[in-house]
Design goal:
Length: 333
């Protein structure tokens, strides 16, 4: 049984008398000990999908229209408030992209970690456990740093504190939503290495949300590519990086700077992600797609299993599939 299984999830945002579809028929599974990356441009529905795992999207303005979110076999969409409180942190924890905005500036970091312990492991809500968690995430001299306020720490250390808070409840699934976006390149690499190390040591699963394909090769077991609220490609990470099948995935990879090869102008994806309520008819990527045909605008393509463990939402994927050199897996973060 999968730890997390999202089945045909549909979520709308209500704006006046309009119902705007933000997540459209998304299906995704994560097994125990697995890392799955959810990638795509900003506005593709990645964060809304991730927040839906623990039903954290406010309702209203959101409304769950259909589907299931099975966490340890239990449907999150049918849980009571008490059941939701138990799984939030207890089964699934979150790490967000801006630790400075997530940490309370008027409380010491040790106090904030202890609050998380009180909710889920009250018997461990003491300084000794806080120090152990800070050591686990690589904070130097944790005995003194538990007395620090967030502003006394660097961005990288703040993010480590956020990870310590997320781990305080010993979750089975860690959702990391753009955890390195606000950090410089060196600290980004350290945080990603930390997540990999913690995954191995603690045996937890990770759902990593990112718009950067440069980190997928080292982090993910599988990758789900989202565009305009839909999953357009799902595949094992190395297979996707070596041979992307959907034209959108290919375009994303072409826009990533490489560490080797001839230096040239980056290949940008023309146009923009369509906004909610303004999705084009048929294939939502068709207006930006280099291989689009007139029939692409007539019907919404299905997500099809075209090869073993490879799913693509494009009937003309064979015209887009291109073998990528091994250097593509080593890209700039």
């Amino acid at each position: 049984m999968s730890l997390l299984e999202i089945k045909s999830l549909k979520l709308d945002f209500i704006a006046g008398d309009r119902s705007l579809r933000a997540v459209d028929d998304v299906s995704l599974a994560i097994n125990a000990g697995e890392t799955v990356c959810l990638v795509g441009e900003s506005g593709c529905g990645k964060s809304v999908t991730a927040l839906s795992v623990a039903r954290l999207v406010p309702t209203p303005p959101a409304r769950y229209i259909g589907g299931e979110i099975l966490l340890n076999g239990r449907d999150v969409l049918k849980m009571s408030k008490q059941e939701l409180q138990e799984i939030r942190g207890g089964v699934v924890s979150y790490v967000f992209q801006d630790p400075g905005a997530s940490l309370n500036p008027v409380f010491r970091v040790g106090t904030q970690i202890k609050e998380s312990l009180k909710l889920h492991r009250p018997e461990k809500a003491n300084d000794e456990e806080v120090i152990r968690l800070l050591k686990l995430v690589g904070i130097p001299a944790p005995e003194s740093r538990i007395k620090d306020y967030p502003h006394q720490m660097s961005g990288g250390m703040q993010q480590r504190v956020m990870i310590a808070m997320a781990l305080a409840s010993e979750p089975k699934l860690l959702v990391a939503d753009e955890p390195t976006t606000a950090l410089d390149v060196t600290i980004q690499a350290q945080i990603l290495e930390l997540l990999l190390d913690l995954k191995k040591r603690l045996g937890m699963s990770i759902l990593l949300i990112t718009h950067n394909l440069g980190i997928v090769g080292d982090m993910a077991d599988r990758v789900a590519v989202m565009y305009a609220g839909q999953v357009v490609e799902l595949a094992p990470a190395l297979d996707l990086l070596r041979r992307p099948l959907h034209p959108y995935t290919r375009a994303l990879m072409n826009s990533v700077p490489k560490l080797s090869g001839n230096l040239s102008r980056l290949q940008a994806i023309g146009g923009n992600v369509p906004t909610l309520g303004n999705f084009p008819p048929g294939c939502r990527f068709a207006p930006r797609c280099p291989i689009a045909r007139p029939e692409c605008s007539k019907a919404v393509p299905e997500l099809m299993e075209v090869e073993a463990k490879r799913w693509v939402r494009c009937p003309y994927w064979e015209n887009s599939a291109t073998l990528v050199s091994p250097e593509t897996n080593r890209v700039m973060v």
